[in-house]
Amino acid sequence: MTTTHPPLHGTGETTPTAPGRRRPARGTEPHARRSPALGQSRLARVLALAALLLFASTWLLPLGWGVLTALKSEQDASDPEHWLWPRSGFTLDRFSEVISRGDLPLWMFNSFAVATAVTVLTVAVSAMAGYAFSRTLFRGRRVLFALTVAAVLVPPQLLIVPWFRQMITLGIADTYAAVILPQTVAPVMVFILKKHFDSLPRELEEAARIDGAGHWRVFWSVLLPLSRPMLAAVAVFVFIGAWNNFLWPFVSTSDPNLMTLPVGITAVKNAYGVQYAQTMATAMLAALPLVLVFLFFQRQIVKSVATTGLGGQ
Amino acid sequence: MSSPPASARTGSRPARRTLPPGLLFALPFLVLFGLFMVWPMAQGLWMSLTDASLSAHDPSFIGLDNFREALGDEEMWRSLGHTLLFTLFSTVPLVAVALGMALLVHTGLPGQWVWRLAFFAPYLLPVGVVSLLWLWLYQPDLGLYNHLLGAVGLDGVAWLSDESVAMWAIVLATLWWTVGFNFLLYLAALQAIPDHLYEAAAIDGAGAWRRLWSITLPQLSRMTGVITVLQILASLKVFDQVYLLTKGGPNNSTRPVIEYLYDVGFTGYRLGYASAISYLFFALVLLASAAQFAVLRRREKQS
Prior knowledge:
The structure holds 2 protein chains of 2 kinds. Chain A is built from 15 helices and no strands. Chain A is mainly α. In chain A, helix 1 crosses helix 14 (276-296), helix 3 (93-101) packs across helix 14 (276-296) and helix 11 (228-244) crosses helix 15 (298-308). Chain B is mainly α. Chain B has one domain (78-302): Orthogonal Bundle (MetI-like fold), CATH 1.10.3720.10. Chain B has helices at residues 6-9, 21-48, 65-71, 74-106, 112-120, 127-137, 144-151, 166-191, 195-203, 208-236, 240-246, 257-267, 271-302. The chains are: A mainly alpha, B mainly alpha. Chain B: The chain crosses the membrane at residues 21-42, 84-105, 117-137, 165-188, 220-239, 276-296.
């Protein structure tokens, strides 16, 4: 769990900004048209642009400083006199050092494997449960759904102590399974998908029913194809969360070969703390995958955060 | 499933022998949910009533002693205070700055994807990257921020080792890291405001400032409520960046309650006591959620 924003809180209402199919979020357009809010005033536009530039440069500055440091030699990085421009010029050597040391690619692989497994399992399991709560009747359904909604409020950080003992009891301590399994329980995703299925019209599946389709056919061939955008939104959100999760992977693994990216790079900080340029090269390389993904899939990610991040509100 | 003995079957209809399909669909989730949510919660509750520890001896039941100890534990209250302080200090700018950014971007100025990337990209970084970066930015002798202060003739600041500054430094790094999320939520809400409201206002001759105050902000008030709720709940759970930036220091002056229970449980080996603190903290989270739920409901009724 990144400390920042677990999606949360379902109160059962829908806002105009909810993932409605009727009103697609226009924020996904690459170029929003001129807003009626600002009007024609030239002065207002200049002021707004100035404020935006100030914000944007303040926000880009830390990353710029990180990249700048990573391109220096160690001597230049810790030279207080020439802190901006390196005396011996720029170099890519820190990056090649980090890559050839080999642990960064390993952590990336681990993070990718863990996040992929968590995402596939979470989406599959939550979609099926969402279908069950939305479209079927069985004894205890209401109670189980109420329990699921209540569990949205449980901060996962509080479960680390019991989880830790549980992994020992289950005999899977310090394995991939121990890192992955507890992360696959996402009550909020079940809630979101249940509400999403509720919003789909029932005519299509009734037609399929008349043709003799059972629950599995209806779920697999009718509802899932209709739900691709929502499933993608949930998957993106789960993946980012799992990729960046720190506390549980940190607690549950002691084998360096199992470390995920967030855990691994902080371990390196302790080992190579004084080598600022190399540390920054590591950090910038570690930042790269998701930033690249964002550049290519900006539209989908923005939409995913806007819909899933609110916990289906 | 093994078939039940014939006598047990007499009362039920034959169709009941197989699980209902709905339950089958929910089963994978329910199994994981039971294993990794319900069981740990129950186990945590049980542990909180014992003197369980990471060392070998069998835990024995001690009733409410852990809770009694926690309520009189100054370090617990101190760390809880840090968590609440962080929540207060971080929520205000995380909502206000996000709103400012979204209003500015929504003006439709050119370069939309650049603004979005600049504000949202930090949110995509793993906390490990964020902490390495900010440790270096805050480095007292070589870090960027003290260089910049020096360039305008100011003295450097001991960002993370001065007790009166460290919490603010953590808030600043957190603001940079996570504001993009709230920014995107606001942006989506802005784009959902119907155009005809602005058109009507334009006919009435309302200026840009007037439109902001009488249309945009009121239309956003619900979203502001939701974002504030989400932010408070997220901030209450702060741990990662504090642990990685200051380890709760200097002098435990930034240690949040989650780090305290981590310290008690994994460094002090007192799992029972850590569980009791977990449950006290959980009660606080529930209380906060209930209060906010009530506020949102009331606002809903008013509108």
